[in-house]
Design a protein that fits this description.
Layout: E1 3-8, E2 14-20, H1 34-50, E3 56-58, E4 79-81, E5 100-102, E6 122-124, E7 145-147, E8 166-168, E9 187-189, E10 209-211, E11 234-236, H2 241-244, H3 249-256, E12 262-263, E13 266-267, H4 270-277
Parallel strand pairs: 2-3, 3-4, 4-5, 5-6, 6-7, 7-8, 8-9, 9-10, 10-11, 11-12
Antiparallel strand pairs: 1-2, 12-13
């Protein structure tokens, strides 16, 4: 699909707000023969030559296996969406003005050369094959939102992301929460991991939303580590079977976390809070 918004300049190039070259095929299609790859590469080259001033570029479902080096001269690019492709590596370190990057649903195992993307605010790496601790991401110190869900992560190290507000780690293999930046984090999704210890939450004082569904929390006293999260508004503990077997489960949780307004996606009535404190 070709969709563009912009205007033609005198030198026969274009100033564009958006160029959408997404395809409609299913990314599960394994058709990556040489002819198709050559055609996609040619298209990327044309983009880089014809639209050097583009602001937003969408390349969904293109069966792309590489970007090098065709996009690196798009210095004005702010938003880049390359989701639903077959990338296993990429080099876009010259795109220094990028603020949003979507790499969802590719084949990425690891990456490097991100240190120049200092303006990046939103990064989506969900549904890939990431299995390392992602130290390279610490170079993106102005990142506000990061989606690493549906990968193979067993540990992370993101301590330098001091301004991060939203972090999605759903459906990984995490046991420890060491390496999660706590300074400004407000929204944390840890659904479908292997977490049983909540000690690190003693420092998460700005946390508002927390999803701990389908983990291995076996001791209700672990929730005492969340008492310092004075702004905690919503927590979900669904799927932690031991907790659900407790008699008066809801009231035991509320007795510890009297600051919350939603538990397991249900609003807590004021009468329930009073009863929990009796």
């Amino acid at each position: 699909m070709l969709s563009l918004l912009g205007k033609k300049l005198q030198d026969d190039t274009y100033t564009l707000l958006t160029l959408d070259l997404s395809s409609s095929f299913d990314n599960n299609n394994n058709n990556t023969n040489e002819e198709n790859v050559e055609e996609e590469n040619k298209e990327l080259f044309i983009i880089s030559e014809k639209y050097p001033n583009i602001y937003k570029l969408i390349l969904k479902n293109k069966n792309l296996i590489t970007l090098d080096p065709y996009l690196n001269n798009l210095n004005n690019l702010i938003i880049l969406d390359i989701s639903n492709n077959k990338l296993n590596s990429f080099n876009i370190n010259n795109l220094i003005n990028l603020t949003e990057l979507n790499l969802e649903n590719n084949n990425i195992i690891n990456f490097n050369n991100l240190q120049n993307l200092q303006n990046l605010k939103y990064l989506n790496l969900s549904y890939n094959n990431l299995n390392l601790n992602l130290n390279e991401l610490n170079n993106l110190q102005n990142l506000l939102e990061l989606n690493l869900s549906h990968n193979l992560l067993k540990e992370i190290n993101l301590n330098n992301l001091k301004f991060l507000k939203k972090l999605n780690l759903e459906d990984n293999l995490l046991i420890s929460l060491n390496g999660i930046p706590f300074n400004n984090l407000q929204n944390l999704n840890l659904k479908n991991n292997k977490i049983n210890n909540l000690n690190c939450f003693l420092n998460f004082k700005n946390l508002i939303y927390l999803n701990l569904e389908n983990n291995l929390i076996c001791n209700v006293n672990e929730l005492c580590n969340l008492k310092n999260c004075i702004y905690l508004y919503s927590i979900s503990l669904l799927g932690n079977d031991y907790l659900y077997q407790l008699e008066n489960y809801k009231f035991k949780i509320l007795a510890i976390l009297d600051q919350i307004t939603f538990l397991d996606n249900c609003k807590i009535e004021s009468e329930e809070k009073v009863r929990a404190l009796l």
